[in-house]
Design goal:
heterodimer; A: alpha+beta; 6-stranded antiparallel β-sheet; 4-stranded mixed β-sheet; 10 helices; rod-shaped; B: mainly beta; 5-stranded antiparallel β-sheet; 65 strands; signal (chain B)
C-alpha cells in the first residue's frame, strides 16, 4: 500500500500537472489496492497522451515500480509507448549546417496562395523561442535562424489569417547538422521543415443571407406568428367546442370578472353607436 | 478551408453553456433594476438575446469594424532616415526607430507605406538604400544584414555576419563601387568587415581585422577610388586606422597610435583624413590626421575656443566638411579645422541645436542644416558646407504646441521650377514627434511618442450641461425613418454597396461616440497616456483622437535631472458627480534616472485641459507608490511614497491629509519583491513619525527563496480597484463554495536558476517552476505548487479568488496555462440552515488577513498553443458579468478566452447538473476560436500591455492594448444583455407595432360584425 502511495506521490511531483492536487486528497483516505490503482489510471488519463508517456518514461520514477504499474495498465498504453519510441527513433532529415558558435535552422513556409492574398507573405513573421529571435520570409518562403545553440527549440509562425502549429525543433549537438522537427499541436513529425497552416482563420462572423425562416424565427416574427395563431385559430377552436360547455365557461368567466376582448371593446363600441 | 475537427464540437458546447450563463445573469440582475419599466425592457432584451444566440458571443461582423474600436499605427522615435526622392514613383523616406521598426513613409502625407517591427533584441544600427530599390538594414550589433524591397517592404535577402567578438557596427553602401558587376555593401560588425552583394546578399569577401576590441567610428570611401578607410579606437587610448581594398578585401595599411589625453567616446570626421575627438575629461579637443601612414595629433583645449568654459564639452557626431560642432554647457560651437590642424570658432548658436549630415546638392557643392527650437518656433538654417557666410535657406516655422528641443534633423533637396534648390527637413523633436518642414511650413507631423506608452489611466469626461445640448436634433421624422429603412435593408441583406456606405456613415453619426461629454453608458472616456518621451496624451475612447498632449516640463532633461523617466500615473483628484466646475487631475510620478535611488519628481496634470497644475522635485527617491483609500477635504487622494531607504512619505503634504491618515497608520501594510536577491518582504509603518509627513517603517515578515534552487521571475497581484459581486459560488448540486477573496493576494513564480534562460537552454530534468500564493499582510503562504520540467517566461493574472498563469512545459514542449482557485473552508459550514436560523454563522464576520481561515485550493492545467506577451482579465462595473481572459499572443493579437475554459472543476464527463451549471467537458488544450480575437484582423505590433476599464454599463468593458500600435475596443464578455445592440432594427419594431394595431382594429371590426350577426339571429 505505502509503496503505491509513494509512487503516486512521485508521479504527482514529477508530472507538473495540476490534477495531482486532487489525487493527493484521495490519498488521505485509504482504499484497497485495485481502487487506488484505478485512480492512478484516472489521473493519468486526464493528461495528454504525450505527457502521459513522458511521465511513464521519466527516469525519476523508480524503474521497477513504474514498469510494474505499466504492465498492469491497459495494453493501449504499451502501444502508445511503442509508438512514442518509434517516433523518437525515426530518422530525421538534416536541414541545418553547423558553424563555429551555433547552428542554423533553415525552413520554409508554404501558404496556399489565394487570389488577392499576394501581399500577405511580407507580413509573416517567424518567431524562435517566444520572441528570442524574429525573422521574416524571403520571397520564396524560406527563412533561417542563425547562431542557434544545440537543444530543443520552438518555432512559431505569425501570419494574419492562418493558424500555424508551433514546431518543436531539436538541434543535435552530437550529430552536428541534424535537426528533428515535430508539430506540437498534433505531434506530427516533419521530415523536412516545411510549415503549412493547419487552417485558415476568418476573424469575422459571416452574415447569414436573408431568408424567410430567419425573419419568422426572429422575436418579432414569433410575436406576429403567435398573434396570427390567436386571431385565426382560436375562433376555430371555439367553434368546435360544445355550445353548452362554452356557455358554461363564459358564465364562469363572467362571474370571475375576467375581462374578455369583447368586454374590453364594448364601451368603445357602445360609445360609437351611441 | 480547413477546419480542425476538434474545435467545432467544443464550440457548440460553448453555445449551450452560454445560454445558461445568460439565464443565471437574468436571475442575479433582478435586484439591480431601479424601475419596473427598465425591468420589463431588460427582460424583453434577455428574451431577445436568448433567441438570437445563434453565433458565438463577442464576435464581429466585418461591416462592424471601426464602430466600437480604433487602431492607430506608430513607429517610435526615429533614429535614422534615408530619403528616396527620385523623379519617378512616389517620394518616400525610410526610417529606423528606437522601437526596432523599419518603415517607409509617404513624404507627402507622412503615412506608413509599409513597416516591419523587428525582434526586441534586434536593434537597428544602420539603414541605407542600395541600387535605388532595396532598403538595407544592419541590426543586432552588426550581425544581421537584410534587404527589403523598397516599394512593398518584402524582405529580399537576409545575410548573417559572424565575427569573433561583439563591437560597434557600421554600414556603408558605396554608390559607385562594383565588384564583378555587382553592387557592394560594406558592413562592419563583430570585428570583421564584410563585403556583401547587393543583389543576392552573398558574401563577396570577409576580412577579420584581428584586433581585439576595435571600436569602429567611421568607414570612409576615399573619393572615386576602391579604397576603404576604417577609423576607430581600441580601448580609450589607442587610435587605429585601416586601409582596405574594397574589391578584394586585402588589408593595404594599418596604422595605430596612442592618443594623448585619452578618448571619451565621441568623434567627428572632418575630412577624409582628419578626425576630431574629445578627451576623456571633456576639456581638450584632439585633432587626428592620418595622411600617408603618418598619424599626427594636435591638441587644443576647449577653453581657448570659448571663454569662461566649465564642465564637459561634447562633440556631436555628424559628418561636415572641414567643420565640427562642439556642445558645451550652454552653447553649440561650430569649429573649423584649418589645413594645418588649427581650430577656429566660426559661429556660436544655442545649445539645443541639431546638425544634419552633409548633403551633396550638386557635383561640387554640399549643404548641411542646423535647427533649433524656441518654445513653439523652429529655426531652420541651411548652409553651404564650404561657405559659412552664405545661407542657402533660413526660415522660421511655427509649431502648434511646444515640442521641446530638436533632437535630430535629416535634410533632402529638390529642384524648384526656377532651378534653384529647395530643401525639406525631417525633424525629430524631444517629444519623439516627427515633423516634415518644407517651404516654411510643417507639411505633416507624427506623434510617435505614442509608440512607447508606459502607463494608462482613464478619466471621466465632463457632464453634459443642461440647455447646451451638443447633440443635433434637427433630423426630421422622414430622415429618421429613411435611416431605419436603410438599416432594415442592411439586415435583410438587400442593400447595395452605396446603401452600405450610407448605413456606416449613419451609424457613426448616430452613435455620437466622439462627443466631448460623459455618456449614459460610460463608453466615452479620456485615456490619459504617459509615454517614454515624457509627454502625456489624452485620447478620446470614441475615435482615438488626441484631445490634448503636453510635454511635461518636469520630465524634460535639465541640469538637475539628467535622464528623467516616467514611472506611473495615478488618479489624484476625482471630483464627485455634482462638482461640475472642478476638473479631475492625475499625478505623474517619475524619477531622475534609471536607478532606484534617483530622486523623484511629481507632477499634477489637469485631465481636461492638459495643463500642468504644479510640479515638485522631491528630496527622496521613489520606489513604490501606494494610493490610499482616503480623500482629503478637497477630494485629493492620499498617496504614500516609499523611498529606497525604506521611509514612507505622505502626499499631499497638508495637515488635513495628515489628520486623516494618522488614525489609519496601523492599518497600512505593503510588500516588496526583490527579484535579484530572491526576498519578499512585508512592511508596516512605525507609529512615530520621523518628521511631519515622513514615517519610519518596520519589516514584519520576509520570505527568502534559496538562491541555488529558486529564482523569482514573476510576481503578480490583484488589481486594487477590482469589484467582486458575490463571495459565494453556487455549484451544481445546490451546494455553495465560498471564494477566498482577499485584496492582499500575491502570486509569485520562481524557476530553477539553470532554467531561467530561454527555451532550449535547459533540459526538463534540471528545470522546475514553483508557484506561490502569499498573503501580503501576514506573509502566510497559502499555496505552493511545483511544476517539474517547466520553465518561464511566466505571465500571470490574479482576479477574484483565482490566478491563471502561462508557462512552458519542457516535457511536452508546449506552452501550458494553469489555474488555481482558492476557496475559504471556514465559511463552508454556513450552508447549514439551522445554524443560519440560530445565528451561529460567521457570514457577517469581516474578511481579514489577521484571521487564518482554512483554505482549499483547486487547480488544473491545459495546453495553450501560443507564446503569450501579456494576460489581462475583463473588468466590469459591478463584477456580475462573467470574466474573460484577454491574452496578448506572440502574433500581437489579443484573444478573448472565457474563464470557464480554465475552471478546475472541469472533468472529462461532467454530470448533467454540472453541464447545466456551465461546466465544459475537459480537453487537454484550450481552444482558439478565430472569431474571438478582439483585435479581429488587426495586429497591435510590439504588444506590451492590455488595460481593461469597466464601463458604466455592467455588461461592457473597455479594452486598451498598447505596444508600437494602439488598439481600443468595447467588449461584452457575455454579450450586451443590458442594452440593445447597435444593429437593433427599430423599424422592424415599429412595423410590428403597426401590424399589431391594425390587427386589433381588424379583429374588433370582425367581432363587432359577428356580434351583430348573433343579435340578428
Amino acid at each position: 500500500m505505502y509503496k503505491l502511495f509513494s509512487l503516486k506521490k512521485k508521479v504527482c511531483n514529477s508530472s507538473a500537472q495540476a490534477s495531482c492536487t486532487i489525487s493527493r486528497q484521495v490519498l488521505q483516505s485509504p482504499r484497497i489496492d485495485g481502487q487506488t490503482e484505478k485512480f492512478v489510471l484516472f489521473s493519468l488519463n486526464r493528461l495528454s497522451p504525450n505527457s502521459r508517456l513522458l511521465l511513464l518514461l521519466n527516469p525519476r520514477i523508480s524503474g521497477c515500480a513504474a514498469m510494474s504499474s505499466i504492465a498492469r495498465l491497459r495494453p493501449a498504453f504499451l502501444l502508445l509507448l511503442l509508438q512514442f519510441c518509434l517516433s523518437v527513433l525515426s530518422p530525421a532529415l538534416a536541414i541545418s549546417t553547423g558553424s563555429v558558435d551555433g547552428y542554423t535552422i533553415n525552413g520554409r513556409i508554404k501558404i496556399p496562395v489565394a487570389i488577392g492574398a499576394l501581399g500577405k507573405i511580407s507580413n509573416v513573421k517567424v518567431i524562435l523561442n517566444g520572441g528570442q529571435n524574429v525573422t521574416f520570409l524571403r520571397p520564396d518562403g524560406y527563412f533561417s535562424f542563425h547562431n542557434v545553440p544545440a537543444g530543443t527549440h520552438l518555432i512559431e509562425v505569425s501570419a494574419t489569417g492562418y493558424f500555424f502549429s508551433p514546431v518543436r525543433v531539436d538541434v543535435s549537438a552530437r550529430f552536428p547538422g541534424k535537426v528533428q522537427a515535430a508539430l506540437t499541436e498534433n505531434r506530427r513529425g516533419l521530415t523536412e521543415l516545411v510549415l503549412e497552416p493547419l487552417r485558415e482563420e476568418y476573424y469575422y462572423e459571416i452574415r447569414e443571407p436573408f431568408s424567410i425562416m430567419s425573419l419568422v424565427k426572429s422575436p418579432m416574427g414569433l410575436m406576429i406568428g403567435f398573434m396570427l395563431v390567436v386571431v385565426f385559430l382560436m375562433p376555430k377552436l371555439m367553434e368546435n367546442m360544445d355550445p353548452e360547455e362554452m356557455q358554461r365557461a363564459q358564465e364562469e368567466m363572467r362571474s370571475q370578472g375576467v375581462p374578455s376582448l369583447a368586454n374590453f371593446l364594448q364601451p368603445a363600441a357602445t360609445a360609437r353607436s351611441g | 478551408m480547413h477546419k480542425n475537427p476538434s474545435s467545432s464540437p467544443s464550440r457548440s458546447v460553448y453555445l449551450v453553456t452560454l445560454i445558461d450563463e445568460t439565464r443565471r445573469e437574468k436571475k442575479t440582475l433582478g435586484k439591480d433594476f431601479s424601475s419596473a419599466m427598465a425591468t420589463m425592457l431588460r427582460v424583453f432584451l434577455l428574451l431577445l438575446s436568448l433567441l438570437s444566440l445563434t453565433a458565438p458571443a463577442f464576435s464581429l461582423y466585418e461591416d462592424q469594424v471601426g464602430l466600437a474600436d480604433w487602431h492607430q499605427k506608430y513607429i517610435g522615435k526615429v533614429k535614422d532616415a534615408v530619403f528616396h526622392t527620385q523623379k519617378t514613383g512616389r517620394k518616400r523616406v525610410v526610417v529606423s526607430t528606437e522601437e526596432n521598426v523599419i518603415a517607409s513613409l509617404d513624404l507627402r502625407h507622412g503615412e506608413i507605406f509599409w513597416r516591419h517591427v523587428l525582434g526586441p533584441n534586434d536593434a537597428i544600427d544602420g539603414i541605407d538604400i542600395a541600387m535605388g530599390k532595396y532598403v538595407i538594414t544592419l541590426s543586432s550589433e552588426g550581425s544581421i544584414l537584410r534587404a527589403w524591397n523598397l516599394p512593398d517592404g518584402q524582405m529580399v535577402w537576409e545575410s548573417f555576419l559572424q565575427g569573433p567578438y561583439s563591437s560597434k557596427s557600421s554600414l556603408l553602401v558605396p554608390a559607385s563601387l562594383r565588384v564583378d558587376k555587382d553592387n557592394v555593401i560594406l558592413a562592419f560588425g563583430k570585428g570583421c568587415i564584410h563585403a556583401i552583394s547587393a543583389i543576392h546578399g552573398d558574401t563577396l569577401w570577409k576580412k577579420d581585422l584581428e584586433a581585439d576590441s576595435f571600436e569602429i567610428q567611421y568607414m570612409i570611401q576615399a573619393s572615386d577610388s576602391d579604397v576603404i578607410h576604417l577609423v576607430g579606437f581600441v580601448g580609450s587610448s589607442q587610435f587605429d586606422s585601416y586601409t582596405i581594398d574594397a574589391k578584394s578585401g586585402e588589408l593595404i595599411k594599418h596604422d595605430s597610435a596612442a592618443i594623448p589625453g585619452g578618448y571619451s567616446g565621441q568623434a567627428a570626421l572632418v575630412s577624409s583624413n582628419t578626425l576630431v575627438v574629445m578627451d576623456s575629461a571633456g576639456s581638450t579637443v584632439t585633432t587626428i590626421s592620418f595622411h600617408d601612414g603618418k598619424v599626427t595629433f594636435n591638441q587644443t583645449p576647449v577653453s581657448t575656443l570659448i571663454e569662461d568654459f566649465v564642465g564637459k564639452a561634447i562633440i556631436s557626431a555628424s559628418k561636415l566638411e572641414g567643420l565640427f560642432s562642439v556642445k558645451t554647457g550652454t552653447l553649440t560651437l561650430f569649429v573649423r579645422v584649418t589645413v594645418e590642424g588649427k581650430l577656429e570658432v566660426v559661429n556660436k548658436v544655442d545649445y539645443a541645436t541639431a546638425v544634419s549630415d552633409l548633403l551633396a546638392i550638386s557635383e561640387d557643392r554640399q549643404a548641411f542644416a542646423f535647427v533649433h527650437s524656441r518654445s513653439t518656433d523652429i529655426d531652420l538654417t541651411v548652409k553651404l558646407g564650404a561657405d559659412w557666410n552664405h545661407d542657402l535657406l533660413k526660415e522660421s516655422v511655427k509649431m502648434d504646441q511646444e515640442r521641446g528641443s530638436v533632437k535630430k534633423v535629416f535634410i533632402n533637396n529638390y529642384i524648384r521650377t526656377d532651378r534653384s534648390h529647395g530643401f525639406r527637413a525631417l525633424i525629430v523633436m524631444e517629444d519623439h514627434s516627427l515633423l516634415l518642414v518644407q517651404q516654411g511650413a510643417i507639411v505633416w507631423s507624427r506623434e510617435d511618442a505614442l509608440a512607447s506608452v508606459i502607463d494608462v489611466k482613464t478619466s471621466e469626461l465632463p457632464v453634459e450641461k443642461k440647455g447646451v445640448s451638443v447633440a443635433k436634433v434637427e433630423e426630421t421624422l422622414f430622415e429618421w425613418l429613411q435611416g431605419h429603412v436603410l438599416k432594415l435593408k442592411g439586415t435583410l441583406m438587400l442593400a447595395s454597396p452605396d446603401d452600405m456606405a450610407a448605413i456606416q456613415a449613419l451609424r457613426l453619426k448616430a452613435s455620437g461616440k466622439s462627443k466631448m461629454t460623459r455618456d449614459h453608458n460610460g463608453f466615452r472616456k479620456l485615456l490619459i497616456v504617459l509615454t517614454k518621451a515624457g509627454k502625456i496624451f489624452a485620447l478620446h475612447t470614441g475615435d482615438g483622437r488626441i484631445i490634448w498632449s503636453r510635454l511635461l516640463n518636469s520630465l524634460r532633461q535639465s541640469a538637475t535631472c539628467e535622464a528623467p523617466t516616467g514611472l506611473n500615473l495615478f488618479p489624484w483628484h476625482v471630483p464627485h458627480h455634482h462638482a461640475l466646475d472642478e476638473n479631475p487631475s492625475v499625478l505623474v510620478v517619475s524619477r531622475c534616472g534609471p536607478s532606484d535611488d534617483a530622486l523623484g519628481l511629481l507632477s499634477f496634470v489637469d485631465t481636461y485641459t492638459g495643463k500642468e497644475l504644479s510640479s515638485a522635485s522631491l528630496d527622496h527617491s521613489v520606489v513604490q507608490v501606494i494610493p490610499l483609500p482616503f480623500m482629503d477635504s478637497t477630494e485629493q487622494r492620499l498617496h504614500l511614497l516609499i523611498d529606497a531607504s525604506g521611509q514612507a512619505h505622505l502626499y499631499p503634504k497638508t495637515s488635513d491629509a495628515l489628520s486623516i491618515f494618522r488614525p489609519e497608520l496601523s492599518n497600512v501594510y505593503w510588500y516588496s519583491v526583490e527579484a535579484e536577491t530572491g526576498i519578499i518582504k512585508g512592511y508596516a509603518l512605525k507609529e512615530k513619525a520621523s518628521d511631519n509627513y515622513s514615517f519610519d517603517t518596520r519589516s514584519i515578515w520576509s520570505i527568502v527563496f534559496p538562491s541555488e534552487s529558486e529564482k523569482i521571475i514573476k510576481s503578480s497581484a490583484r488589481k486594487s480597484n477590482e469589484v467582486v459581486h458575490t463571495q459565494a459560488k453556487v455549484i451544481a448540486d445546490q451546494d455553495a463554495m465560498f471564494k477566498y477573496i482577499s485584496k492582499n493576494l500575491l502570486f509569485v513564480a520562481t524557476v530553477a536558476p539553470k532554467a531561467s534562460g530561454d527555451i532550449g537552454s535547459s533540459t526538463p530534468e534540471e528545470s522546475w517552476l514553483i508557484v506561490y500564493l502569499i498573503d501580503t499582510i501576514t506573509g502566510r503562504i497559502l499555496q505552493r505548487m511545483t511544476h517539474h520540467g517547466a520553465q518561464g517566461p511566466v505571465e500571470a493574472v490574479v482576479s477574484e479568488n483565482w490566478v491563471i498563469y502561462h508557462y512552458f512545459n519542457l516535457r511536452a514542449h508546449r506552452y501550458e496555462m494553469s489555474v488555481i482557485e482558492i476557496y475559504d473552508q471556514s465559511r463552508a459550514d454556513n450552508k447549514d440552515v439551522w445554524k443560519l436560523i440560530l445565528g451561529k454563522h460567521n457570514l457577517t464576520s469581516p474578511v481579514s488577513s489577521y484571521s487564518r481561515p482554512e483554505v482549499m485550493t483547486r487547480s488544473q492545467s491545459y495546453f495553450f498553443t501560443h507564446s503569450v506577451k501579456s494576460i489581462a482579465v475583463t473588468s466590469t462595473a459591478k463584477g456580475i458579468t462573467s470574466k474573460q481572459l484577454l491574452i496578448g499572443t506572440v502574433g500581437d493579437q489579443v484573444l478573448a478566452l472565457d474563464k470557464r475554459f480554465l475552471d478546475p472543476r472541469r472533468s472529462v464527463n461532467p454530470t448533467q447538473a454540472e453541464k447545466e451549471e456551465g461546466i465544459i467537458p475537459l480537453a487537454d488544450s484550450l481552444p482558439i476560436i478565430p472569431q474571438s480575437y478582439v483585435t479581429h484582423a488587426l495586429k497591435v505590433e510590439g504588444l506590451r500591455g492590455i488595460e481593461t476599464v469597466p464601463a458604466k454599463l455592467e455588461s461592457t468593458t473597455l479594452i486598451f492594448a498598447y505596444g508600437v500600435d494602439l488598439f481600443f475596443t468595447r467588449f461584452a464578455p457575455s454579450r450586451t444583455y443590458d442594452s440593445l445592440t447597435e444593429d437593433f432594427s427599430y423599424a422592424l419594431l415599429l412595423l410590428t407595432i403597426v401590424a399589431l394595431v391594425a390587427a386589433i382594429f381588424i379583429t374588433w371590426i370582425l367581432s363587432e360584425k359577428k356580434e351583430l350577426r348573433d343579435k340578428w339571429r
